[in-house]
Amino acid sequence: MISIVPLTSVAPSAVENLLDLAFGADRHGRTAYRLREGMDASPALSFAALDEEQRLLGSIQCWPIEIAGPDGAVEPLILVGPVAVHPDHQRDGIGRKLVDTALAQANGTDSEPMMLIGDAEYYGRFFGFRAEATAGWELPGPVDRDRLLVRLRPGQKVMREGVLRPRMLPTAATDRQLRPA
Ligand SMILES: CC(C)(COP(=O)(O)OP(=O)(O)OC[C@H]1O[C@@H](n2cnc3c(N)ncnc32)[C@H](O)[C@@H]1OP(=O)(O)O)[C@@H](O)C(=O)NCCC(=O)NCCS
User: What is the residue with the minimal CA distance to atom 28 of ligand 1?
Assistant: First the structure.
């Protein structure tokens, strides 16, 4: 029996170990990591899969990023991933449960479009992520265009040309600096 819980209830070191197992310890150089550099994962959209003994078998993290168009317009996006399942438990439905949970949460809160870099056969087939709208996107590193995917809910649109980057949210420190003394 697998339970899905907020990722904030799991030790960060356990998540890092799982990601090393699923993707290899050299994963940090990947373009997706550069895309959310300096950001914290969105707590409401990040989940863990635990077994009955509370062992971590899978995780999903989502990150606030944005796309900046050539005309200066900026739109928010959500970067999905990494999605990781422990090698001993892959293909048991855990990945699908994790992605379904994050997507349901995003649908319920009418969130920004969700994008990821991943296998189209998996993320397209089960969750409706597609590459068509991403051909004009620029990223801070190399990317296989077939793996650059976005999921749009009915009626939802996304900027077709622009540069993807971490979302420039004002920090608490910046807020304080801006507040009149
Ligand atoms: C990719 C991953 C998240 C999928 O999660 P999972 O729990 O193993 O897979 P699920 O049980 O949810 O889904 C199983 C189905 O997806 C298919 N599938 C799983 N991984 C796939 C992949 N990378 N590409 C295409 N199809 C895939 C399986 O064939 C299976 O299909 P079936 O039901 O017709 O037999 C997981 O295997 C993982 O962490 N892999 C290591 C990291 C990795 O390689 N990621 C690549 C994607 S970015």
Answer: 91
- In whole angstroms, give the CA distance from residue 137 to residue 16: 29
CATH architecture of 3-169: 3-Layer(aba) Sandwich (3.40)
How far is the C-alpha of 140 from the C-alpha of 32, rounded, in Å? Answer: 9
Residue 69, judged by CB atoms within 10 A of its CB (0-12, 13-18, 19+), counts as: middle
Domain boundaries, the chain: 3-169
Q: What is the pLDDT of residues 22-72, one digit of tens each?
A: 999 999 899 999 999 999 999 999 999 999 999 999 999 999 999 999 999
Q: How many CB atoms lie within 10 A of CB 52?
A: 8
Ligand 1 pocket by Cβ (under 6 Å): 22-23, 83-85, 90-96, 118-119, 121-122
